[in-house]
Amino acid sequence: MDVVATGTNQPGAKYDRLIKSAKGVPSVSTIVVHPCDESSLRGALDSAEAGIIKAILVGPAARIRDAAAKHDLDISGYEIIDTPPTEAAAAAKGVQLIHEGKGQVLMKGSLHTDEIMRAVTAKDGGLRTNRRVSHVFVMDVPAYTETVFVTDAAINIFPDLDAKRDIIQNAVDLFNQAGFGTTPRVAILSAVETVTSKIPSTIEAAALCKMADRKQITGALLDGPLAFDNAIDIEAARIKGIRSEVAGKAQILVVPDLESGNMLAKNLAYFAKADGAGIVLGARVPVVLTSRADSARSRMASAAVAALYADARRRSAPIAAA
Questions:
Q1: What is the pLDDT of residues 31-72, one digit of tens each?
Q2: Cis ω on the peptide bond leading into residue 152 (within 30° of 0)?
Q3: Pick from 40, 117, 233, 267: CA 20 to 30 A from residue 125's CA?
């Protein structure tokens, strides 16, 4: 099931298809942590009313109800689990509910990202796996044919080679399992497309490509180092004499560090008018990360990505167990 049609360049068209696909799978129980302002509460309720998630609201009940009343949001049909009035308490309770099997997805509300991620990555009682936790922006760029993944732009500040291996594998697994297609084209970005000791990220890019050759990274086509232009523009790649199955038509953009990734994603959002859905991978369940600046459309798209991925994981679990 491909959720995004190649060749669809109308603004928002890729997200329309993404959200439609998510409505076609069973809604996933989602623990919404500390939804105590309008944007986070409305985002969760819109996704629930669209049939994408089944929202369980976790946090100080009085504040959640006050936010709903202030902004005329009906939460009468939703389960609310009360916690002490701190972000840390809500985050801890949300993680506990995941352990208890009450939810398949964790969603960030109005608390700080550091607070929820501290609970997710805690050595005791967290949601760690043997995979490094990383973030993916799933971006609908109107000027680009493909849905673009940008990773990691929110969690790992200066990832080393092993962390980048997991960052890539997390994004590839999401792409392959959530219906974006198969065998994505992964561009490992740097400032140049040649390997040089003066720019360490070019050496890591080359090493990651060799790791893919040796099946240490699977399910994708990798190329790098690639500069941004020859990663996404076929003519730029041709002029530079780069011949590969990835150059000029990348679907996953792997950035050298968080700073460059964050700037790239925000440049796409503000200059190219791209929508960006955010999801954290590598934990026991997908974690939806939203920002106060996110549009309602981006929030629903984030929930849709998590729902599609959670559904794919649920369907493959019996096979994995066997």
A1: 999 999 998 999 999 999 999 999 999 999 999 999 999 999
A2: yes
A3: 40
